[in-house]
Design goal:
Elements (H helix, E strand, L loop, with lengths): L1 H30 L5 E3 L6 E3 L3 E6 L5 E5 L6 E4 L12 E2 L5 E12 L5 E11 L1
Parallel strand pairs: 5-8
Antiparallel strand pairs: 1-7, 2-7, 3-4, 3-6, 4-5, 7-8
């Protein structure tokens, strides 16, 4: 009878361990700031030369921003070199500079649709 209880305790411990490990892996994958970012090997095309307004700042420090003007282009600005962003911030592109695509970012919108936007940085022309 003692052997049966030891066996059952081992099975219960194994099941608890598997669930705990699965939970930890899921949390780590979900909290990774670059989990949904795919970077290009080289800088991509010029996206814009206009200014942008920050719509929302992600936990990673990266900022979703939309282009000012007629276009409704939404992009993700990478947080580089200690750059910080805040909601509503104007991101100006200086003369001689442009906004270049360096990757793509996938996220799930409020209506459960998966959206993909370009990941951009400001570079010299």
């Amino acid at each position: 009878m003692k052997k049966i209880w030891i066996f059952l305790a081992g099975v219960v411990c194994g099941v608890v361990f598997i669930f705990a490990l699965s939970f930890i892996v899921a949390v780590v994958r979900q909290s990774s700031p670059t989990a949904d970012i795919t970077m290009l090997k080289e800088d991509g095309p010029v996206i814009s030369e206009r200014s942008f307004t920050v719509l929302s700042v992600l936990d990673s420090g990266n900022a979703l921003a939309y282009e000012d003007g007629i276009s409704s282009l939404l992009v993700l600005f990478l947080c580089e070199d200690g750059q910080t962003y805040y909601d509503g911030q104007a991101i100006d592109v200086a003369p001689g500079q442009c906004v270049k695509q360096v990757g793509t970012y996938r996220y799930v919108a409020r209506n459960d649709l998966t959206k993909t936007v370009p990941v951009v940085v400001i570079r010299d022309k």
